[in-house]
Design goal:
two-stranded antiparallel sheet; alpha+beta; 5-stranded mixed sheet
């Protein structure tokens, strides 16, 4: 902002100094030249110094009185100009990231695989968004929401829940410019279901479907059965791949400590919360990971299940395609990439890279996501109403 103000002041000053020669009707012709002795000190800060040099260094007689009046008036005008310019720049800086009418706010845990999926989608499509990191203990950042999980994405004042629904709804809006976010949300009705623990949970119908018409569908899915393939592997990522992460990153006590060190470092914890999260959380997750291994019928060496799943994914892409989406990633590519990348920097990720064939695809995804290869028209007007 300081630089912007300096530029504004420079421009205003430049136009005053370089005003055109006086012509009939030019207000400059009415302003007599008033010499300001000691001008290098006349504009220093401090009211007394300014007044003594400017008002009292020149005798106030005749035309010079008029000159001072114009000078003071001009100074006030310059002040108002700079003030308005500063307010304008402050307003620009206060505006949240947006594309056209779309303003996105992501409430997340940075190390959560489901949140990582959403970030991968937003980054690939070049959609600017604000991040609110949620404290995993108190979760005060989402106390306003009756939906108590993350990720949550606010599209202006419309709330989207569930990572797969968020991705499908936003992709629908990018493909269908005549639909609003509110209209699209009606395509994904909530329903109550009972999970395997007998607990009532909220699910969303159609959450793996991008709601496009036939012409839009041809653009998005040019190959036969590519839509079915995308849905199949998006569900696979949620129903199977994501459940391999915890048993692998908390496989041993050492890996559990390393994982929680990363979680605390990247997450939003207080000093004491971070300490207890690292040591108590690591111990708890080490135990829980063993239960998860049993629940999902994983092998004793859970790395083998991870390797098998990742290689299965690579085989499904095949040797002739760069991505499952062909030359460009589709939503299944983004989902799998988003889930896997939460292990980066951990032993499980290093082992996966070394013992599977996923590296080439992963690096292509990394490049495509960071360079926003899926960005559409940046001026796209997306309104929620």
């Amino acid at each position: 902002m300081a630089a912007a103000c300096a530029r504004t002041l420079s421009k205003v000053g430049w136009h005053i100094l370089e005003s055109p020669p006086c012509r009939a009707g030019n207000i400059a012709s009415l302003i007599p030249r008033v010499p300001l002795h000691g001008s290098s000190r006349a504009y220093r800060t401090g009211g007394a110094g300014f007044r003594s040099k400017l008002l009292f260094s020149t005798p106030l007689r005749g035309g010079r009185v008029l000159g001072c009046a114009f000078l003071i008036g001009g100074g006030l005008g310059l002040y108002q100009t700079i003030k308005l310019s500063v307010q304008h720049h402050l307003a620009e800086e206060d505006v949240k990231p947006s594309v056209g009418g779309l303003k996105l706010t992501l409430y997340q845990y940075k190390t959560c695989p489901f949140c990582s999926k959403v970030r991968a989608f937003l980054d690939y499509h070049g959609l600017p968004y604000e991040i609110v990191e949620v404290n995993p203990v108190m979760r005060k950042e989402i106390k306003w929401s009756t939906y108590r999980k993350v990720p949550i994405v606010m599209v202006n004042d419309v709330q989207l829940n569930d990572s797969s629904l968020i991705i499908s709804a936003l992709k629908t809006r990018l493909m269908s410019k005549d639909k609003t976010i509110s209209e699209i949300l009606y395509c994904y009705p909530e329903m109550k279901a009972v999970n395997e623990k007998g607990k009532e949970v909220i699910e969303f119908n159609n959450k793996y479907w991008v709601m496009v018409n036939e012409a839009e569908g041809q653009t998005m899915y040019p190959e036969k059965d590519s839509r079915k393939e995308e849905i199949k592997w998006r569900k696979w990522a949620d129903d199977w791949l994501v459940h391999l992460i915890s048993p692998n990153v908390y496989r041993t006590t050492g890996e559990a400590l390393a994982s929680f060190d990363y979680i605390v470092r990247e997450g939003k914890f207080g000093t004491y919360e971070g300490f207890f999260a690292k040591y108590v959380g690591a111990a708890a997750m080490f135990v829980i990971s063993k239960r998860l291994k049993s629940r999902h019928n994983l092998q004793d060496d859970v790395r083998q299940d991870l390797y098998k799943a990742v290689n299965e994914w690579v085989v499904a892409i095949g040797k002739k395609r760069k991505f499952m989406g062909g030359d460009q990633p589709n939503l299944a590519d983004l989902a799998v990439y988003g889930i896997l990348r939460v292990m980066e920097g951990l032993e499980a990720w290093d082992d996966m890279m070394e013992n599977t064939k996923v590296k080439s695809w992963y690096r292509r995804m990394e490049k495509a996501t960071k360079s926003h290869k899926g960005q559409t028209d940046p001026a796209l007007n997306i309104d929620q109403h």
